[in-house]
Amino acid sequence: MNGIKIVLGVVVVALITFSMSAFIVDERELVIKFRLGEIAETDYKPGIHFQIPIVNNIRKFDKRIQTLDADPERYLTAEKKNVQVDSFVKWRIVDVETFFKSVGGDFWVANQRLSQVVKDGLRGEFGKRSVQEVISGERDEIMAAITASAGIQAKAFGIEVVDVRIKRVDLPQEVSNSVFRRMEAERDRIAKEFRSEGSEAAERIRAEADRQRTVIIAEANQKAEKMRGEGDAKATEIYATAYNKDPEFYAFYRSLGAYEKTFSSQGDLLVLEPDSEFFQYFNGKVTK
């Protein structure tokens, strides 16, 4: 019985010793092993590794890509104008020993150091360009240049700068208001020009329409007068032809028409002598 207890005790001690000696390195981690406070080893592959309890201690660091999202900063352009720049940096640890020695393994300190490096780079790049260039023309070139320069300086911290991105480039509020007012005034000026040109074009169109209307009416009146004259001439010709064929019948027909127009209403009154020529077809007398 005592032998079993001794065996169990040995097993328990062995398990405790193993648990204190073994450590696991994840593929997302970088590890530093210290020996009495001094760096002993850093090159660990993912898997199970061992240490000497009390003599050694382990510290792990995340080797995945980190994001430094800095607060917006103001920078001067080549024309000495302020612009507000919002940017972020992607970085990761590539040399864990240098990272620990330079910033004490503190990610906050690393972000502060890297932020200063990027700000200096942005200040230099923006100082060489105009507002127009930094807003629209050369943003990609600026980001590439800062990524390269910051990457060189970040090696001193054991860091690799993966990318530097500019999210926004804005003018300060007071400058934005001034620019907006200038833009508004320019748009008003353009609108007035368009309205003026439109009014001028409308007047030209109306004048041309009036001219065409006058021409069309004149041509129509001319054609109408011509057709009316031709009609009158034709009517006169027809009357003359009819008269020549039978003058007596033509005279009688014309008299009937005159009677119809004269006595078209019951209230019509005409004072004439009974033997006047107007009533020649009423009394049977016909003048030739």
UniProtKB/TrEMBL annotation:
NCBIfam families tied to this protein: hflC
Subcellular location: Membrane
Alphabetical keyword list: Hydrolase, Membrane, Protease, Transmembrane, Transmembrane helix
Role summary: HflC and HflK could regulate a protease.
Gene Ontology cellular component list: membrane
GO MF annotation: an example: peptidase activity
Assigned protein family: Belongs to the band 7/mec-2 family. HflC subfamily.
Transmembrane is among the record's keywords: yes
Membrane topology classification: Single-pass membrane protein
Name of the protein described by the UniProt record: Protein HflC
Gene Ontology biological process terms in this record: proteolysis
Record-annotated membrane-spanning stretches: 6-25
Gene that this sequence comes from: hflC
Source species, domain of life: Bacteria
Keyword Transcription regulation included in the entry's annotation: no
A Pfam family: Band_7
Alphabetized InterPro entries for the sequence: Band_7 (IPR001107), Band_7/SPFH_dom_sf (IPR036013), HflC (IPR010200), Stomatin_HflK_fam (IPR001972)
Domain Band, chain residue ranges per copy: 20-183
Species lineage: Bacteria, Pseudomonadati, Pseudomonadota, Gammaproteobacteria, Candidatus Thiopontia
